[in-house]
Amino acid sequence: MNIDPHIESLILRSLESGLSADEQEQLLTWRNTSQENETAFQDFVKIYKAASVLPKLDKLDTKAAFGKVISKQPEIPEIPIKRNPFFSPKNEFWKVAAVFLVLLGSVKLMDSLLFESSPETVIAWTKVNSDESKKEVSLPDGSIVTLAENSSLEYLEVFDKIRSVKLNGRAFFDVVRDEERAFVIEAGEMNVEVLGTSFQIEAFEESNAIEVLVKSGEVAFYHEGDKEKEDKKLKLKKGEKASYDKLKKSIKTVITKDLNELSWLTGKITFNKTQIDTVIKTLEGFFGVDIVIENQDFANCKLSASFDNQELDEIIEVIRVTYDVEVKQEAKTIRLIGKGC
Amino acid sequence: MLKSWGLFISLLFLPNLLFSQKSKLDVPVNVEYDNRSLEKILVNLEDKTGILLSYNPESVPLSHWISYSAINKPVSMVLSEILNPLDLEYQVVAKQVIIRPKKN
């Protein structure tokens, strides 16, 4: 910070020759005005004391150095020199002051380089992208976030009073309980706030829905503008799901019957009297393939089955044997030819 | 030295790799069903033994009431004894135990 030259001279003289009662009062008032002023004062004193132990200080040719500056700006010093000998380049004060200013600058620089925790330091956001496959991220508080493919998470390297993260895409959160520090996820225009629990959020930028599914505990789901309005926060408990519509700007709770919401995470796919065309849609989404059912009657059949981290061809083989259907594997599509049940 | 440890460790895990549906079916279980639906029994067997089932719910009489008990019998035998009277059979494909009507 820049100190007013008058104050600077007061400080300097207070350290050297002493001040009049009036000047002391002035300096004290200035120091008490703000924490910043007091800090500047302390810095100045620090530098003064450091400088006084530097043996070579007296030998510095401040006079010559200062003279050079003056010679380049002849107009400026002219007026005050005549009026007040204090401003004369010959005054010892300026030599010392010049050295002090340089030292003050370097101490400030050292400060910012050495002490990262100083309040001005900006704590960086870390961004993790999952790209093509799911990715597990450990956060500074021990919470674990599993990102689905093509999703990204941003978090502060050091969590402060609020454990704050940002999500784009789909992720499963397993948040370590901390009653003192809420865990807040910014998912598009919606926030999800918890103390400690596990849940899934789906918030792809290109989708019109932002969804939360709670696996354990309780979460609060609300629009970013309603941070302070407790009554606008939708509380969701274990097993509950809510969906926010970006176009309608409304939240609704959803009763989910889909057993496979978390399949991407667990690798487990479960069907319970599920119609074959739904089974096929799930498998297509999960494996990114095209499956065609030749006969609509077979599409209306139902399946009860559970799969655990299995490849698509194993699953297709199980379906084939369960219904006695014919399977034709083509370049990009799998065809199922079967009859009605 | 390191190599032999590596071998030792892989031998330790070998049984896990072989521990497929087949051997899950060999594990002896105790069950007691007193007038329960076939559907509930199948769910219970999956939970209890870790076997994975697959069936067409429209060709398996799920609401059929059954009383059955077994002490220290392999899962495979329990399944056969429950399914046989209903004209059903099972077949192991991949990790799944597929339940189907018996073929004539």
How does this structure look, described?
The complex is a heterodimer of chains A (about 350) and B (about 100). Chain A has about 350 residues and is an alpha+beta fold. Chain A folds into 3 domains: about 5-115, no CATH class; about 125-255, Sandwich (Jelly Rolls); about 265-335, Phage tail protein beta-alpha-beta fold. Chain A is about 35% helix and about 30% strand. Chain A is built from 10 helices and 18 strands. In chain A, the strands form 3 sheets. In chain A, strands 1, 2, 3, 4, 5, 6, 7, 8, 9, 10, 11, 12 and 13 form a 13-stranded mixed beta sheet that branches. Chain A starts with a helix and ends with a strand. The model of chain A is unreliable at about 55-60, about 75-80 and about 115-120 (pLDDT under 50). Chain B has about 100 residues and is of the alpha+beta class. In chain B, strand 4 and strand 5 form a beta hairpin. Chain B is about 40% helix and about 35% strand. The N and C termini of chain B lie far apart (about 60 Å). The relative contact order of chain B is 0.19. Residues about 15-20 of chain B have low confidence and may be disordered. Chain B is globular and about 30 Å long. At the A-B interface, strand 16 and helix 10 of A face strand 2 and strand 5 of B.
